[in-house]
Amino acid sequence: MESWIPLLLVLIPVLPLAGAALTAVLGRPVLAGRSHLPVVVGIAGSFLAAAGLVLAIHGSLPAGANLPGAGDSVNAGYERTVDLWNWAVIGGAYHQPAGPDAFVMRDFRIDVTLRADPLSAIMLAMVTFISLLVAVYSVGYMRGDRGYWRFFAYIGLFVFSMTMLVSVSNFLLLYVFWEAVGLCSYLLIGFWYERPAAAAAGKKAFLVNRIGDFGFALGVFLIWTAFGTLNFHDTLGADGRIVAGVLGEARLEGGSIGIGGGTATWICLLLLLGACGKSAQFPLHVWLPDAMEGPTPVSALIHAATMVTAGVYMLARCAPLLLATVDGQMAVALIGGFTALLGGLIALTQTDLKRILAYSTISQLGYMFLGLGTGTVLGATAGMFHLFTHAFFKALLFLGAGSVMHAMGGVVDIRRFGGLRRILPVTHATFLVGCLALSGFPLLSGFFSKDLILVAVHERAAESGSTGLYQWLYWSAALTALLTAFYTFRAFFSTFYGQKQIPHEAGGQAHEAPRSMLVPLVVLAVCAALVGGYFEVTHGFADYLQQTPSIAYLARQAPQPAATGGHREVMLTSAVIALAGIGLAAALYWPRRSAAADAARRAGQAVGFYQLSLRKFFIDEVYQVLLVWPGLAVARASDWIDQRIIDRLVNFVGRVPPAVGAAIRPVQNGLIPFYAVGMVFGLLVLLAAVLMGWGWLGT
Amino acid sequence: MENELALLNNYLVVGAMLFGIGVIGFVSRRNMIIIFLAAEMMLQGVSLSLVAWARYHNDFGGQMFVVFIITVAACEAALALALILMLFRASGSLDIALWQHLREANQPAYVDEEIPELEVKSPTWPRLVPAGRQPELDRSDTEHRPSV
Question: Which residues make beta-bridge pairs with A116?
Answer without folding.
Answer: A80
